[in-house]
Protein 1
Amino acid sequence: MDNTPKYNRPSWDEYFMEVMDAVAKRATCDRGRSGCVIARDRQILVTGYVGSPPGLPHCDDAGHQIKKLIHEDGSQTEHCMRTIHAEQNAICQAAKLGISLSGATLYCRMTPCRTCAMLIISCGIQRVVCQRKYHAAAEPEALFAQAGVTLEYLHDEVQKYEDGSGE
């Protein structure tokens, strides 16, 4: 009698998240090595990771380009502006290749920012699956709800960057 435990294949969401983790290893900003996978009908359409546009220097080579933002409530956050987000890179990849993202699901590290949320809505992505929440998730969550985009989290906690910050 074989006592080997039965192998449990990952669900499609688990599978695409594992691929997203692999894609994130190509990211070129150590503040948030994020990746993105966009799939439809159990098929990967495109991937993207945090990185500079082609031909421009990467954080890993040239250092961060930090900008401080002062919000309406007076709070301040710091963001690296040298790179573009994984979601933006994936959407740009689809545009370059002429791939429609209508009806697709996007898999990513954390809640997309406001700009990424608007791009996701505009290109017709219907579902977003995140590992964790972004520290400023309220506005993108509201945008997705208003637009009818399903947003799901695998873990109900805020993503921390490799430098220990939440931004």
Protein 2
Amino acid sequence: MRGKYDWEVEAEWAYLSHRFENGVKVRGGKLRVPLFMYSDYLDVGYAQPFARPPQEVYGAIPFSSYTGAGVSYDVEYDDSTLTMQAFGGESNVKNSAVELSNLMGANLSWTDEIWTLRAVYAQAQLDGPIVNEVDVALAPGVNTQANYTVLELDDDKGSFVGVGASYDNGEVIAITEWTRSEIDNAYPDIDSGYLTLGYRIKEFTPYATVAYTKTQDNDERLPLSQAAAIQMVAFNAERMAYSIGLRWDAIDNVAIKFDVTYADDFGDTSGGFLGNNFDSSTGKFTYDDTLIYTVKFDAVF
């Protein structure tokens, strides 16, 4: 359960699995969508070196699980393992009417327990309205919020491609991922990526992260109408984010994390922040940078 969803209890994992004698493993039910290096551990902060996976990458996809099936096979080498995985099913975007059908994809991951390399491709059909909350003036000084349908998706094709790599020799940590998501119609194509470097000093791990996100097809979605202009304000986004943090493994199975993240370089966009409203009278957004402080307690049982 998550605070942003009013603590509703919902299953992220609920599946059956079977491994055949030839090593092929099949799973069916509700599963994580294996798009990112930390997809399996999104809710297990203790398994992550940072306070949170960089939202420039991990926040670009508004769903984390799907209902369907997956098949995987491990190829064992002398000192490393290659994992091949295919998956397919359907999903719903949380707190949204958007539905994903015909979801299918595959990924490859190779690791020797120090280096890890992975690549993933997925595609799906998206259907339903994308709705934003807007402020509506009822009277001078009196505002309310209303839902506005920014875009209606009609079985539009979406695709996702990502590559990642990590290095961890017990002291030095280096993690990087790059992703691109593309959706037909007026919804934006998004590039994003990050690089994290860290170093373990006994129970302390200081780290630094640089991340970015940017919509790539802005010129193809020029405001040729009022609706298109609203879509540009709602969808166009770019920003850089710089993080400095510290993980402290205070006791067994408990980590305390401190993080400061500064985001700027929004360009002529909201930076991808829903609360950064556009003021038509000034032609500017409410703010053009932000600073986020985090203190986090992660535990496993």
Protein 3
Amino acid sequence: MPTKTLQIPTADGQADAFAAFPDHGERHPGVLMYADGFGIRPVLREMARELAGHGYYVLLPNPFYRHGPAPVIELPEHIGEEVRPAVFAQLMPLIEAHTPERVLSDADAYLRFLTTQPEVGAGPVAVTGYCIGGLLAIRTAAAHPGQVAAVAGFHGPVGAGGRDLLSKLTAEVHLATPKAT
């Protein structure tokens, strides 16, 4: 399966990104896949490859490109309870700096880039994300009703204004959260 490391021009600089797509020499539906708060890492690249294996061109941008290329912070192999506080202490300033205005500006750039790739077919795209990436996906879909046909969020925060965004969506919506234990 072909993959690419890309640079996406944005209003604030170049966002590094990863893309995966089928090797059929044809055009495929586009999917903008937002990373969770940990950013692009091997497991997300694998998820992008898996989704691409179902016939999609998947674009996975670094949401924290303003702070450097992915990985923006060094992550341990396993983010267990013993290291979680230190990791979140590094991540929270990056997440807090990612304002709704920046999200929408970046979304414009990501969608413009995605839809102009030669491997991406004409027509609307899908947007997906896990955790904070789910909220970014919902914001993107709400701001681009004619361009986003489907949005999926997994284990994502819908509060903090997210419920208002849901009422603005015209895309097909799929949300999943784990059961409380």
Protein 4
Amino acid sequence: MKDISFRNDVLPLKNVLYRLALRITLNREEAEDIVQDTLIKVWNKREDWNEIESIEAFSLTICRNLALDRLKKAENQNDSLDETPTERADQASNPYEEMIQKDRISLVRRLVDGLPEKQRSCMQLRDFEGKPYKEIATILGISEEQVKVNIFRARQTIKQRFKEYDDYGL
């Protein structure tokens, strides 16, 4: 019998849940609300925790479903993730290179935001959260093969669109 603790097993998932909700809704406040709602729903199911194979997959599934529900209700008013802080891929040696780097990161964010929801979620969970295909399949309720196809298509689309932008200038 596994002993799941809200403090040690569920609360540490807050950031992963937030990033997934943000990828789906593209709205910071909405994502924060979804994380709160997710944590409440997971807490309310605490009697069933020992029957759950992975509390993380369970929590991510609830988070994704809540985010999709909110998205349907809001009729998808796609705000951008431009407000999110830009990570530094590597230290640019001058302001011009730094500006180009920020533009490219911003472009990739916009391209990811423009993907269909399933591709966005698969890419978020695999490339940004490092989840295995099997866990992603469980979270999204699709087969591992569908996860791989979605990730492949998402990466191809990002690569192709990035190249188009790069060829014609940002």
